[in-house]
Amino acid sequence: MGARKDLSVSFSRLTQEEVEAFCIEWGIGLKYNPVAPGCDKSIDQCPSGSIALYCHHFEFSNLRHPFSIFVLNVEYYRVSFGQIHPQRLARVLHFEVLCRASGYDPILLSFHRFFRLVKNGDWFTFETSKVDTYLVSSMVTTLGAWKDRFFWVSESIVPFKMIWRHPDAVLNEPEPSESESNSCFLKAIRECPSRVRPFPEYFLVLLSISKLWDKPDRDPVLMRSGQVMSALDFVKSDDTSDVEFTNAEAAAGDDVVVRGFEHRFEDAKYVSVPNVKGFTKTDAPKALTRRSARRMLKSAPQSTSSDHVDLSDDIEVSGDQGSDAEKENNLIVLGKKKSSGKKVTVTPVQGSSGKDVEGLSEEEVYVPNWGVKGMQEYEEFSKKKEKMKASMAAMKKDIDSFSKTEEAWVKKFGELTRRHEIEMGDLKKKMEADKLKLKADRQALDVQKKAFAEEKEGLKASVVQATGDNQWLIEQGF
């Protein structure tokens, strides 16, 4: 099983004591009932009334509690925190850091122009879009062990019902056009590509993202080379090892933690996503579609099941429901009014929010406009899919042919290897025989040399003796 497909087999190894200590360290109140999952529980088995959080969301992604209003607006994507990869949740917080360091409030419409929700294995990620500048220059590619460090907290920690997004839900929301965003903001933010990394607590307090600060009468200050450093320069700097974190006396009656109160959800009124600027709800026509990207039901009771959310896009229809074009291209709001001879059955969505849809009666169904693909686009995709299948079949045929050729070459190579081994064996035997013969010849030569030396010594002795015998004759003159 690949590293991206093991969500359901990754179990938490945290104990209850470790979870409570972690929550105290990171400012998560024990009133939210943090619980260590059992050693046989994966993160998608979160019990009803709770949500799941990874420790790396805080340690790496810069997530802090109380959550910022901007982070909570991610509910727009209908995805739970436990489904978001820590590296990609870091991009959400990084965007907020960039905005606040540049002097702007982050809004979801602007974020959606630079990042889009993408399915990556069992997790969802926020990847850079193709329509604007990359705001991420680099980021940490490995996180170490993080999948087995998660815990449950009460769902009251967020102001809406956080749902578990179905892995097959449609992901085709178009990016907003440039005209929909603040031109001054776009110009400023495009000049800030920077490295995604965990930021120091000092820095997050300075930007009102964190409230883990124990000096209410002091303000955090960044210093470099004896000069005050701006938050934006800190974000844009890849190397901040020479930055000194200090503090200065705050203005009278000013508190850096209280100052960022309006940016965070602290039991205050929360503005739901459909009512956030740039995401206004539109009236839906009174026709039926078989393919809707997401739907929220207010009349259906909240499910207590811990299974995946079923966001399948099929709506069962009994009776004649009009033309196929109406079924494929329109969205619907169903109310109390009875339709004549037409019965519609809608499958409720588990955990759909009852707090983020306004203006509907209790039995109405709100279907947002999520840019659903039309039938023509679906047919084009089917054609491309068939072409891809044919291409893959041809590639498989070529691979089989290559495999046979490779097998023949391997066989021939084996035969050559065996022949070479035989020839080398014969050559080795011949060399051993020649070596033994040379050794024998050398020994015979040594014997002959010794015999010659002995003969030479004998001749010398004979000469000496003959000279001695004839010495008298020589002396007498003969």
From TrEMBL:
Residue ranges of the region described as Disordered: 292-326
UniProt superkingdom: Eukaryota
Entry protein name: Transposase (Putative), gypsy type
